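Predict the 3D structure for this chain.
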Amino acid sequence: MDGGVRFISNTVDSTIYAALPAMSLDALSRGRVELGVGTGYQRGEFRALGVDFEERNTLFDEALRTLVAAWTGEPVTEKGEHFLAEGIASLPTPAQQPHPPIWLGGNSALTRRRVIDYGAGWLPLPNARASAHVLRSPALETLDDLAELLTDLRRRAEDAGKPAPDRVMYFLANATDDEGFRTHRETIARLPELGVDWVYVNGHGRTEKEALTWIERYQEAVLSRIPAA
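Done. Predicted structure below.
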């Protein structure tokens, strides 16, 4: 851990539309783009977009496949459930080759399979046991839960004959007071032994001043106390 907080753009349910702007931004930023994506789980969001919730995994897989193909700059021909691409080339190609790093969010077995298939980073998400069945996603309440999922992820990589993922990010629960900051410090101290090297933190504040104040408190109470790698 280097004490920094890294932010990743998150595009949900419309991965294919992220191809061109992500390519352009990566080229303009000289290779500083990392793209985080996930299938989504809120049924209401799918209804609002007129998309069948039950199709989300099929749509996501074909979109992710097309996204990676588009990043090559070569003509792409792909027939999806609801789209057809015939010899479409997207330029400029990204600065990072073969493409910008991808992060996949979610806890499901399908997500873990995709992480391995694409050599992606993994962002498991907090999920209470009480809601795990409804969301159809494994519970993730503790670091012990995370350890079990990571063990499964590495086993799947070994079975597939592929390298174990080397980028794992943990979502830290909201912290707004000294107790929350202490919990963050203690959690971060345990993450390296699990193989987690990134953390995701939500900021706080209703105004710019409040947000900057929280950032300063977090720097002093948490980041400055993380031992150098």
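The first helix runs from residue 19 to 28.
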